[in-house]
# Entry
Amino acid sequence: GEPHAELRIRKLCLNICVGESGDRLTQAAKVLEQLTGQTPVFSKARYTVRSFGIRRNEKIAVHCTVRGAKAEEILEKGLKVQEYEMRKNNFSDTGNFGFGIQEHIDLGIKYDPSIGIYGLDLYVVLGRPGFSIADKKSRTGCIGAKQNQQRGSHALVPAEV
# Structure
C-alpha cells in the first residue's frame, strides 16, 4: 500500500541488567558486543537499595541500541526463540513491544564457559517515516493524527516479521 504508512522498526534496544558491577558486568558487555557488533553502554543505579546490594551510581547494567537491518536480524532471532508468540501486555499503548529471553545462547551465540549464560530484554520501537520530527532538538513538530495511528495497527507486525 502506501509506503509512508508502513510500520518499520525504528530501533531495537537490548538490555542486560546484572545487578552488580565487576566481572559479570564486563562479561555481559562482551555478550552484547558479540551480538550487535557495537560497543554497549553501561547504566548506573539511580538509588542505593540495601536489599538488592546496589549503591547509587554503581554500574549495574549494559544496554545497546541497534537500528536498520541489524535490528531486524536480531529481532528475527529473538522472535524465533519466543516461537513468534507474545502476550497482550507485551505491547505498549503506542504499539511498541518488548520481551525477555532467558538464555542469550538461544540467539545463536556460541556458549563460552568463561562467560556463562545471560538473559536479556529486547524492546522494539516501531514508527513510520517522519516520526523523527518529534524527536529533534530545535523546531520539534507534531506527528499528524493519521500518521500517528499506531495503536491497534501493531496487530499486523508479527505476521510481517
